[in-house]
Amino acid sequence: MNRLGFLVRRTIRDEAALQRLSVPQSELMAELAGKDVALVGNARALAGSRHGQAIDAADLVIRINRAPMPHPESHGTRTDWLGLAVALGREERARIRPGRILWMSHKRKRLDWQSANSPGFYLHPLADYAALKTDLHAPPTTGALLIELISRSKMTRLRLYGFDFFASLSLSGSRTADKVPHDFGNEAEWVANLHKNDKRIMHIR
User: What residue ranges are annotated as transmembrane (predicted)?
Assistant: First the structure.
């Protein structure tokens, strides 16, 4: 599909055509199998930590949206996968240098050609988004979508960094919890239940 064809398919919401740009979910699951995964959220509190070395030591480092990395000591430097729900500018893309882009949002109109045409591009199925939205009784965050996806894999460990469910707000924006459509209380409880039932999942504070 060329760029014009992509723009047309995106405009008319041709989901089947857009999905043909994506690697199958099974390919991600195969790559996650046996891996120690670090999923790095964008909570401001992470900037006061010294988790960077542990993050970079993971087999697979996954970041979210604009992936702020103010200090290597707190955030590390690697980005193997980037879960997106926003468009990336050229400078942001060059700074983050993701090895693979995962478009997690149900909002296909935000998906850009450069991301959709990147190596190993993955488009998260709308059905998976809808199922988690039902479970959380609210639109899920990009982080929650990634946690749910990774938790279904045969990874050996998932370490969550920079997840305080908006208690310290986000490094990537200035909005407060009442200005976003997510239910952070429900997401926090959901993650706690995941950890209770799956000890591979660790919430690092």
Answer: none
Cα distance between residue 142 and residue 139, in whole Å: 10
Whether 160 and 201 have beta carbons less than 8 Å apart is answered as: yes
Other Cβ atoms closer than 10 A to 87: 14
- DSSP classification of residue 191: H
Q: Which ranges constitute the DSSP H helices of 43-200? A: 52-56, 72-75, 90-96, 113-116, 126-136, 142-151, 184-197
Tell me, yes or no, if the pTM score tops 0.90. Answer: yes
> Which of 42, 49, 102, 54 is CA-nearest to residue 78?
54
* Residues of the chain falling short of pLDDT 70: 173-175, 177-179
Q: Which domains does the chain have, with CATH numbers?
A: 3-203 (3.90.1480.20)
How far is 126 from 98, CA to CA, in rounded Å? 23
Q: Which residues, in sequence order, are bridge partners of residue 161?
A: 40
**Closest alpha carbon to 43 in 153, 187, 152, 155:** 187
- For 50-106, write each residue's pLDDT tens digit: 999 999 999 999 999 999 999 999 999 999 999 999 999 999 999 999 999 999 999
Between CA 167 and CA 122, with CA 181 as vertex, the angle to 5 degrees is: 95
